[in-house]
What we know:
By secondary structure, the chain is of the alpha/beta class. The protein is built from 15 helices and 16 strands.
Amino acid sequence: MKPANLLIFMSDEHNPKVMGCAGHPIVRTPNIDALAARGTMFSSAYTTCPVCVPARAAFAVGKYVHQIGFWDNADAYDGSIPSWHHRLREAGHHVASIGKLHFRGHEGDDYGFSEVQIAMQIIEGKGDLMGLVRKDLPERGLSWKIAKLAGPGETPYTAYDRDIATRAQIWLREEAPRHRDKPWVLFVSFVCPHFPLVAPADFYYQYPLDRMPLPKQYGKDERPDHPYLRDYAGSFVYDRYFDTEKLRKAVAAYYGLCSFVDDNIGRVIRTLETVGLADSTRILYTSDHGDNLGARGLWGKSTMYEEVAGVPLIIAGPDVPKSKRVNTPASHVDTYPFIMECAGEDRAEMYDGHPGVSLSRLARGEEPRRTVLSEYHGMGSTTGAFMIRHGRYKYVHYVAYRPQLFDLERDPEELRDLAGDPNCAGLIEACRARLFALCDPAKVDARAKRRQAELLQAAGGREAVIQRGDLGFTPPPGYPATLG
């Protein structure tokens, strides 16, 4: 690809099934749909980790979580490992960030950007300390918030996202013209549709409650019984507070927040077109991870189901195939080489153990013989979880629990776990071998827990972090840094 500017949009917790271009029958995302129609959409794309902080660290560095060691929401990126921002800035490119980063946020940390505006970082530079507790999991005291708050309205998050979109529009009009010598990169990072599930009225009321579907496998007799899921649901007791009305309000609000994110993306893209930069700028849209949205009685993230480990991933612009859908599994690690290519910096010295395959290569039809990985070591879990895609199959390995196996071609909604089928024993062993070729799960799990034990001790121990309390959700900059 010829060098060109790059505009990266990242949302937070956008379930990849909840877009018009993904075939959703209700949700309206016209701007994201238009982006997919004029570009390439990756329909089997995955986060490196289904929770915010490590996912964003891995996106920045372009490597898997076990390669970089930022394990959970209390162990945030500190700039110590070179990111694509560092490498492009060092090569003379202007790299700007507007919005959520969820990095460590300590004074003096250098994340590699040329400029940073209104960055949301982890709270108090410490993040979610309760997530460091990996056995005898504490019950999350603020789990009631998702159900109680669900409905129409405004929150600091919706105000923050509007500000992010406005600042991005200003940047394209006033700052972008100053950087013509080399391609620039603008990272625009929204916080919606992350809970609280409160959507602005214009978007919430697009989704009448009597049309809101109940989540799949929501009935208590329908829910899969797996110890990993029991651990998570026993710590994040979100579903305890739902009744039918609150459930429908939560779904409507989430759909409304997805439309709200889409609208903000549209505002920025229209400005890009207005100032005459559309033909010289590529666009990438993704999210850090997805959201369970009530499926199987689960809310939030932290599982390996498609709704959570899967992410929206779309690229468009010069030299990107148009109206193309790629089913080959892709990963956030594939964005790093794509970003290097966009900037014209696809050189050997930009790489050191990066496992990604550029999205441009996947878009041109390459099908690399590799295994895509997502891993989890955080809050609500007692054991490391590792997911791989092997052709049509998804294999989930738990260090302390039995595995899961799904045939995504025959069972895209993951309703039938094949791991107990004796006819699948050989397939499970083949998937296990592919995972172990990437990492040793038990050793990785032990590394993560050693680091978490160190951080827990530094924070005063189990009782101290439980007394500090549940975060609920991180406040954006300019709002009180409360835990409630």
